[in-house]
Structure formats: structure tokens, C-alpha cells
Write a structure and sequence with these properties.
about 450 residues, alpha+beta, four-stranded mixed β-sheet, two-stranded antiparallel ribbon, 8 strands
């Protein structure tokens, strides 16, 4: 039976990895990439405070009337660590600018960074420890779903993000809390107990449940898993072995838990995680890039375009077809791109514009083609956009690599520019520049709490 094998050696290796992560240096390129992802998620937290999922979470905290040990970037508020992790996870997912790990379908940063930051603030750890903790969270969290089997998880109705992200957040928070190898064994059991989440979130019309499912839930549960073991909670020391295992519950006969430690310490999952250049659902990025390329090359406008067809991987198309949220609706986003020549944070979140006659007119000319052959290329995101013009031409552009993916990574300047575009409307240009510079030099910060004034609103 799946899950009945003795995997104690795997458990021991993961536990040792977690216990040693705070004192294990990262390769320079991994160090830099991790700082980029921290900046990305921090910018999402700040911009997300003004969007509906963030406002809902902040309203809930205000009703509790609590202050505490961790900050809520983009606000003047603080909260107890677990609550801060939850709220910051909600805000991190609110604007759709958070990162994505294709092989696991996870959005690791939206849970890992909030949980790690909340614990780092509570414990007063260094910026270097925070960086190493976040990298460790990606390394374990992004391996969990491939180890269990992505297809098996999804076929049973579970959401892979909610499984991998609670593991990643648990590990990252535990590194900041300074757990030892014995406590790390217990940590894995509490991460397993809190794994779950259903794909029913697709029916969420306002992106609130999505922000919980892919951000706040994993951050909150991961923080609590680390806090519990750090304060003395005991648990099953080997949830990967025995008759009633994590693997048996979520995996199947085809699962291979050796993936949890394959290349651990040598292959870094943060390097395989994509950053986003646009504040839209990730399955739309390739189509948007293709349409903008055609628009720029051929001077396309609503007046000279007769029809647009976008051909995408089958599963990607299902995710973004007909969604009510403006920034996750492929037809709507491509309509904005053709009309405006770009897509901004403001335009992609303007729900009222979904009913504007000019947008609806263009939207009616756009069709979506689901391609099973493209699906076989996953996790690489590809798309082909074909445009029929009013003068009888058919133009075509195929995108093989999306900007920000491992195949076409952003430069440091590009990452910082995207982050600044999200932060500046909330904090202003001067403070944004100071914050971006501080995260660039995060490894030199002795206590992460020294950065609080930089992301505090007001």
C-alpha cells in the first residue's frame, strides 16, 4: 500500500536540512534570486492592502483590536505573528503579481515570505537568516507536490498550492524560529496535518477565497506549525513512514517521495520559480506578450483588427476563460492590451471597465483555443496569437518563453522596476527607492525589524 514504506531516512534528511538552513550559506546567484523574490512579495503585500482581499483581511484584524510583534507592510498596523502572516499572505496574493513555480503549480512566495517575515520580526533575526529561511521554504515546499504526484492530487480535487505552500511556509518560519532537527521532525507532521484545500476556489468571483487559498492559509498555518514546535509541541516524528502517512492520504501508487530530497542543497527551487511582469493571472502572460508584440510591430488597434485567436495550453485556458475577476479573465486582459497598448495595475483591477461598451466590443472579437499539444510542453508556458486584420491579413506570433521565467529571467533592474511600480502608489517614490535599496542589501541587515519604518504607511 502507498505510504507504508519506511521513509525515515528521508524524514531525517529533511529535518537536518531545516535545522541547518540558517547557518548554511547560499550560492551568490541563489542569494540574489531569493532577495528578488522577497522584494517581489513585499511589493505585492504593500499594493495588495488597497485591493479587496487585502481590505477584507485588514478589516478583520482591526475588528480584533490586537497589536503585536509583526508588521503589516503598507499599513501602520502591527499584529501577533500568526495573524500578521495570514494578513500578509492575503495581501501578497491580492494583485496577482506574486511568483509562481510551474512544476508544482504553487505560488510559494505568497505563503513562504509572509510566514518567514512574521517569525523573523518576532525573533529579531538578521536579513541573512531571513534570506536563507525563504530559500529553504521554496526548496521543500516546491518539492512536495511533485513528490506526491501533481496529476493525482488534482484528479482527487485537492489544490496543490495549498499543500506545497503550507510545507514551504512551515519550513521558512521554522528556520527563523531556530528549530533543531528533532523539532523539525515534528514540524513536518504539523505541516502534513494542515495540508489540504479544494480546487473549488475556481468559483470565487472576487479573488478573496483565492487569496486565502494561495496565500493567507498557507502563511498562517505554516507560521503556527513552526510556533507550535518552537514552544514545545510534540508530534509524530516521522509522518512519511508507517501505515497512515502523508503519502497515503495525498499521493498514490505512483508517488515518489525521494523527490523531496532530490538535489536538496544543490538544486534550488527559487531558481525555478518565475517572477511576473504583469499584475494578471499567470496563464495569460504568454498570450499578452504575443499580442503586444503584434500590436507594436504592425500598429494594431481596435479599428484595424477583425478577430483575435489565442492558442494556449488546454489547462491554462480553462483557468482564465470567462472569469469574473478582470485580471484573471483572458479575453478582458487582451481587450485592454489592444485598446491601451499595455496593462497596468489600475486597468487590470478595474472591474467596472469589464462592462464598458468599447471593451465589450473588442472582447467579442477574441476567441480562445485550447491546445492539448501545448499542454504537453508544460511547465513551459507558451501561446500563439493569431490576428485577422480588416485588410485581409492574418498575423501570427508565438511566445516560447515568458519574461520572468527561468528560461527568460528578469534583470535586477527589471525586478526592481516592477516592484517599485507596485509600492510607489502607496508609499511614494522616495520611500520606495529607499526600501528597494534596503532589500537589495538585505543580507547586511542585522535585525529585520530595522526595516519596519520603510514599509510602514503614513
Amino acid at each position: 500500500m502507498a505510504g507504508s514504506n519506511d521513509n525515515s531516512a528521508l524524514t531525517g534528511r529533511i529535518a537536518g536540512f531545516v535545522a541547518g538552513a540558517a547557518t548554511t550559506p547560499l550560492p551568490p546567484e541563489v542569494h540574489q534570486r531569493t532577495r528578488q523574490h522577497i522584494l517581489c512579495i513585499l511589493s505585492c503585500m504593500i499594493s495588495g492592502c488597497d485591493l479587496l482581499p487585502g481590505r477584507k483581511a485588514l478589516d478583520m484584524v482591526q475588528d480584533m483590536g490586537e497589536a503585536g510583534e509583526a508588521s503589516l507592510p503598507g499599513t501602520a498596523m502591527t499584529a501577533p505573528g500568526g495573524i500578521a502572516a495570514f494578513v500578509n499572505g492575503m495581501t501578497a496574493r491580492a494583485d496577482e503579481s506574486d511568483d509562481v513555480h510551474a512544476r508544482s503549480r504553487a505560488h510559494p512566495g505568497a505563503s513562504v515570505v509572509p510566514a518567514a517575515l512574521a517569525m523573523a520580526e518576532r525573533e529579531g533575526v538578521s536579513g541573512e537568516t531571513l534570506i536563507r529561511a525563504v530559500a529553504a521554504g521554496y526548496d521543500i515546499g516546491c518539492r512536495v507536490v511533485p513528490a506526491l504526484g501533481l496529476a493525482q492530487i488534482e484528479d482527487r480535487g485537492f489544490g496543490p498550492q495549498a499543500i506545497g505552500q503550507v510545507w514551504g511556509a512551515s519550513v521558512a518560519a521554522a528556520v527563523c524560529a531556530g528549530v533543531d532537527a528533532r523539532e523539525a521532525r515534528y514540524l513536518l507532521s504539523y505541516a502534513a496535518q494542515q495540508s489540504g484545500g479544494l480546487q473549488s476556489w475556481y468559483s470565487d468571483e472576487e479573488h478573496v477565497e483565492c487569496s486565502f487559498f494561495m496565500g493567507g492559509m498557507g502563511a498562517r498555518d505554516g507560521y503556527w506549525a513552526a510556533d507550535m514546535v518552537a514552544t514545545g509541541f510534540t508530534a509524530n516524528p516521522d509522518v512519511l513512514s508507517g501505515a497512515w502517512t502523508f503519502q497515503r492520504a495525498f499521493g498514490g501508487d505512483g508517488s515518489d517521495l525521494s523527490e523531496l530530497t532530490a538535489g536538496l542543497g544543490e538544486r534550488f527551487e527559487v531558481m525555478e520559480t518565475s517572477l511576473k511582469a504583469w499584475t494578471i493571472g499567470y496563464p495569460i502572460h504568454a498570450s499578452l506578450n504575443a499580442l503586444l508584440a503584434l500590436r507594436g510591430e504592425h500598429g494594431l488597434t481596435p479599428d484595424n483588427v477583425k478577430a483575435v485567436r489565442t492558442i494556449v495550453p488546454a489547462r491554462d485556458g480553462v483557468i482564465v476563460d470567462g472569469r469574473n475577476s478582470p485580471n484573471i479573465n483572458l479575453h478582458h486582459v487582451l481587450s485592454l492590451a489592444l485598446i491601451d497598448g499595455t496593462v497596468t495595475l489600475a486597468s487590470s483591477h478595474d472591474a467596472a471597465r469589464m462592462k464598458h461598451p468599447a471593451v465589450l466590443d473588442v472582447r467579442g472579437r477574441i476567441s480562445l483555443v485550447l491546445d492539448d499539444e501545448m499542454q504537453k510542453l508544460m511547465p513551459r508556458r507558451t501561446a500563439t496569437v493569431e490576428v485577422d486584420t480588416t485588410d485581409g491579413r492574418t498575423l501570427s506570433h508565438r511566445v516560447e518563453a515568458v519574461k520572468g521565467t527561468p528560461d527568460l529571467p528578469m534583470t535586477q533592474r527589471e525586478v526592481e522596476d516592477v516592484a517599485a511600480g507596485l509600492i510607489a502608489p502607496v508609499l511614494g517614490d522616495r520611500r520606495t527607492a529607499t526600501l528597494v535599496e534596503a532589500v537589495r542589501d538585505l543580507g547586511a541587515v542585522a535585525d529585520v525589524r530595522a526595516l519596519r519604518p520603510l514599509w510602514r504607511r503614513g
